[in-house]
């Protein structure tokens, strides 16, 4: 969980300091924990030793599609694990990527200054960030639980900008089918652009009042996607600032001085948009399957997990 990206900190440093927490936020249990199996997965990018978080349900067996989650600027916390567990409850596997390395303390207790110090070397240097992002994808492709040709990547804030870098770095290679960046930062890259002819689907889920998202950068991002002729979407949620999916953040009340805040309507709408996108990209069009059926273990229309997910 985090409050913001770097740009936002610059804008409202003192309110953020007032919100500083020392322990991780307890996310609600919106899945059936009796079938969720989780573990850490060690991997590496060069000399950097990394430790991802893997979650899946043992109510079904065999390989399944995977959603990779790239963390925001405080690294891996309960927020990212929560999202991975939600994907697990839907029949997918969720994998939280490690960007900073297991040698670094991660989570909400990291002071804001430290978060910037951790994030900026990646954000300012796509040559450094892209291999780190790819390391998670390559690791997921080695997992027995993974359907290696059905992988989608999402990210939040720093990680939301990161998945666009991933798409730029992995334009036309089997495995990854698409990416979605939530309250992403930044939209554009100083590195190589999205390559023409890539089959990837690229989505942004953004707050219309996010002060870190300039109109120019939105135009540039859309132009980049058009030039590459990828399938893309820019979801722009009204009355929404930065970090709108973070349940522990104060609800945004329209105060223009506050650049971060939870927005339940935007969180829910963007979550269900993603769920639809996943059914489409993973080609789960068979409505008798476990993802959508009335009789499935994780039926989100009638099942217990599904009923709870309605509020996520
Ligand atoms: C599934 O995982 C849960 C939680 O880890 C565990 O309690 C249960 O025994 C597992 N069931 C099977 C069939 O492996
Ligand atoms: C934050 O950064 C300072 C200066 O580099 C360092 O001394 C401190 O240990 C860091 N704290 C955490 C929690 O990472
Ligand atoms: C950017 O990252 C690359 C790859 O790690 C590294 O070789 C290069 O020195 C970095 N550039 C800067 C300015 O730090
Ligand atoms: C863009 O992609 C579509 C389908 O993905 C394809 O039919 C079309 O020819 C492409 N256009 C260009 C200019 O490459
Ligand atoms: C916003 O900040 C300005 C300048 O500090 C201040 O005058 C104004 O009262 C603030 N508005 C709110 C709603 O907090
Ligand atoms: C749809 O999925 C169900 C459950 O996995 C399977 O039994 C059925 O054969 C599938 N139907 C088609 C047309 O693939």
UniProtKB/TrEMBL annotation:
Keyword set includes Hydrolase: no
Q: Name one Pfam family in it.
A: DLH
Q: What does the UniProt keyword field contain?
A: Signal
Q: Where is the signal peptide?
A: 1-20
One MF term in the entry's GO annotations: hydrolase activity
Keyword set includes Signal: yes
Cross-referenced InterPro entries? AB_hydrolase_fold, Dienelactn_hydro, FrsA_esterase
Top-rank taxon, per record: Eukaryota
Using the record for this protein, list the coiled-coil segments as residue ranges, or answer none. none
SUPFAM superfamilies named among the record's database cross-references: alpha/beta-Hydrolases
Domain (Dienelactone hydrolase): give its ranges: 51-273
* Entry protein name: Alpha/beta-hydrolase
Organism in which the protein naturally occurs: Coccomyxa subellipsoidea (strain C-169) (Green microalga)
């Amino acid at each position: 969980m985090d409050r913001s990206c770097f740009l936002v900190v610059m804008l409202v440093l003192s309110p953020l300091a007032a919100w500083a927490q020392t322990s991780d936020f307890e996310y609600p249990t919106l899945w059936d924990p009796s079938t969720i199996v989780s573990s850490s997965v060690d991997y590496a990018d060069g000399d950097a030793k990394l430790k991802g978080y893997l979650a899946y349900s043992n109510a079904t067996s065999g390989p399944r599609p995977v959603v990779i989650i790239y963390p925001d600027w405080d690294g891996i916390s309960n927020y990212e694990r929560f999202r991975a567990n939600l994907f697990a409850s839907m029949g997918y596997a969720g994998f939280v990527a490690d960007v900073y390395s297991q040698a670094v303390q991660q989570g909400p207790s990291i002071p804001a200054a430290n978060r910037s110090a951790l994030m900026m070397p990646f954000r300012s240097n796509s040559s450094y960030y892209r291999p780190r992002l790819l390391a998670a994808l390559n690791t997921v492709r080695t997992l027995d639980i993974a359907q290696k040709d059905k992988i989608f990547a999402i990210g939040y804030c720093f990680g939301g900008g990161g998945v666009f870098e991933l798409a730029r770095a992995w334009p036309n290679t089997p495995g990854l089918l698409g990416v979605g960046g939530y309250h992403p930062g930044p939209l554009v890259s100083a590195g190589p652009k999205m390559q023409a002819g890539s089959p990837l689907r690229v989505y942004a889920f953004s707050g219309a009042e996010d002060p870190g998202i300039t109109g120019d950068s939105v135009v540039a991002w859309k132009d980049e996607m058009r030039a590459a002729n990828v399938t893309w979407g820019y979801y722009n949620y009204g009355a929404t600032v930065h970090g709108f999916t973070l349940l522990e953040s104060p609800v945004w009340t329209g105060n223009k001085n506050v650049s971060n805040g939870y927005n339940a309507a935007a969180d829910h709408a963007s979550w269900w948009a993603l769920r639809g996108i996943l059914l489409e990209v993973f080609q789960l069009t068979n409505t008798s399957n476990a993802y959508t059926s009335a009789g499935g273990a994780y039926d989100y229309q009638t099942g217990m997990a599904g009923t709870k997910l309605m509020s996520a």
